[in-house]
Design brief:
Helix content is 37%, strand content 21%. The protein is an alpha/beta fold. The strands form 6 sheets. Strands 14-15-16-13-12-18-19 form a 7-stranded mixed sheet, with helices on both faces. The protein has a 6-stranded mixed sheet with strand order 9-8-7-10-11-21, with helices on both faces. The structure holds NADP nicotinamide-adenine-dinucleotide phosphate and magnesium ion (MG).
Length: 477
């Protein structure tokens, strides 16, 4: 553990009091990483007071100056990327290599948002009315925005929300996930080191079920950007809608990859194993359903079985570990329980270890599943591939779209017509051709369709849509 603090950051000050919660190493659950402090009701109220006060000057701060702050934050993240990667692997369980990559990607998010802050903020148009000298529309920040983020990308998701929120002049109250306080503190420290004015970004530590309601009951909230589960997201979305507060929800998925018989099966299998198994399958974009044309189904299974049976599941710091543990005991228990019923089907790879020795779940490969299997009703969120056979491209497409989710999808084929058709017919927000469903560039929009998201997309040029609103100004002669 390499941070200097263990409490929330409110109005530029690190809190040192609060109820203690423990941070557990999922690879060695008997090892407590450290004690962290839950934000009190007073701290929560203070965070909004600070954000509201800071908003007055931050929204007036010239965009080029805000942009400079973002570049400094990027620099501070980059400087500590190794430490962030270390602490993220320790508390969340993804491999050190993946964690370090995520930290560096987060610095890039701030650099991108720094550039976006310099883009035109509106347009002038000519009025029909001759008594109007100037007619213009400009975007303004929303105000104090709340960002609520999950543990599975504990720095990149907060980074892409916070970077764009502050780039466009908002101030932030951020509630990170309880499972990853260390990584969250790293980001808050980087922000502090960059000299961002006090109160522009406030971070509140604590369990969602304990402090979430208090955070979201504050009357000063101008917007909510939430990433997490469908259950929590929908519930918060309803509460915000009742209060007329703009809300952006990025939720779960049940992502599919189609393999057609003309595909390069070596590329397809590797990409799918990466998409399903890395980060122990705990990515919102993780590949779950693999829909294969019958002709090549057994060849695909043979190839995937090699990955499922040889990829090492182990400590995130062992250089030969491909998968670390899942992030928590509740994740572990949920998966074990969830996957038990499908043992009736042919389980190709499944051996569970004792959770006391780490929350390790071996990569799973199931075949012979029907698209209507109950397992697909909700997100799996673990290292699981479910093979569904289909007769031809049209059937594959039907199965791929036969879900209430719509986050990410992919197709493996050398047929350009089918690839193009899939890119338009796939009902998901991200579509990949001959690539895994996971992994996103930071400078393009990202967001789920159907039940996987609502509100405007995040990232890229789309990020501005959520964090700003239009104002039209008429200048009479
Ligand atoms: P979660 O349980 O919904 O939690 C998400 C965040 O909400 C956490 O900070 C959580 O706090 C907080 N929270 C929980 N209950 C709350 C309440 N009543 N009021 C306010 N905040 C509350 O999701 P998770 O298990 O952390 O994350 C995994 C989920 O996120 C998966 O479904 C995954 O697909 C989804 N996800 C989606 C995307 C996307 O972009 N579409 C990206 C990544 C992850 P605590 O953690 O402290 O409880
Ligand atoms: Mg932990």
């Amino acid at each position: 553990m390499t941070t200097d603090h263990n409490g929330s950051l409110v109005n530029g000050a690190w809190l040192t009091k609060g109820n203690v919660f423990k941070n557990i190493n999922p690879a060695k659950p008997l090892e407590i990483i450290g004690d962290f402090l839950t934000a009190s009701d007073t701290a929560i109220a203070d965070a909004f007071t600070a954000a509201e006060r800071a908003l007055k000057s931050w929204r007036q701060t010239p965009a080029p100056v805000r942009s400079d702050y973002l570049l400094k934050i990027a620099e501070r993240i980059e400087i500590r990327a190794d430490r962030i990667g270390h602490d993220m692997a320790l508390e969340e369980g993804k491999t050190y290599a993946e964690a370090k990559g995520e930290a560096s990607g987060s610095a890039a998010q701030f650099r991108f948002a720094a550039a976006m802050a310099l883009q035109p903020d509106g347009a002038t148009v000519q009025a029909r009315d001759l008594k109007t000298a100037l007619l213009m529309s400009r975007v303004e920040p929303l105000g104090v925005v709340v960002c609520i983020t999950p543990w599975n990308f504990p720095i990149s998701i907060p980074a892409w929300k916070i970077a764009h929120a502050i780039a466009f002049g908002n101030t932030v109250v951020w509630k990170p996930a309880e499972l990853t306080p260390l990584t969250s503190i790293h980001l808050a420290e980087a922000i502090e080191e960059a000299g961002l004015p006090a109160g522009v970004v406030n971070m509140l530590l604590g369990h969602g079920s304990e402090i979430g309601q208090k955070v979201l009951s504050d009357s000063r909230i101008a917007g909510l950007s939430f990433t997490g589960s469908n259950t929590v997201g929908r519930q918060l979305g309803v509460a915000m809608a009742e209060r007329g507060i703009p809300t952006q929800l990025e939720l779960g998925g049940s992502n599919s990859s189609i393999i057609l018989s003309d595909a390069n099966l070596d590329i397809a299998s590797r990409e799918i194993a990466n998409g399903a198994y890395l980060s122990a399958g705990q990515k919102c974009t993780a590949t779950t359903r693999v829909i294969v044309e019958s002709k090549v189904c057994s060849e695909v299974i043979d190839r995937l079985q090699v990955f499922a049976s040889t990829w090492k599941v182990g400590d995130p710091f062992d250089s030969d570990s491909v998968l670390g543990p899942v992030a928590s005991l509740s994740q572990f228990d949920r998966l074990v329980e969830r996957l038990a019923p499908i043992k009736d089907f042919q389980v190709v790879a499944a051996k569970e270890m004792n959770p006391d020795n780490g929350y390790f779940i071996n990569p799973r490969l199931y075949k012979g599943l029907d698209q209507s299997n109950n397992i697909f009703a909700t997100e799996i969120f673990g290292p699981v591939i479910c093979i569904i056979e289909a007769e031809n491209y049209e059937d594959c497409l039907q199965v791929a779209n036969n879900t209430e989710f719509g986050l990410s999808s992919s197709i493996f084929t050398t047929d350009m017509d089918k690839a193009l058709n899939f890119s338009s017919e796939s009902e998901s927000g991200v579509v990949k051709i001959n690539k895994s469903t996971t992994g996103n560039e930071i400078h393009v929009p990202f967001g789920g369709h159907k039940q996987s998201g609502s509100g405007t997309s995040e990232m890229g040029w789309a990020a501005k849509e959520f964090f700003t609103r239009w104002k039209t100004v008429y200048f009479g002669k």
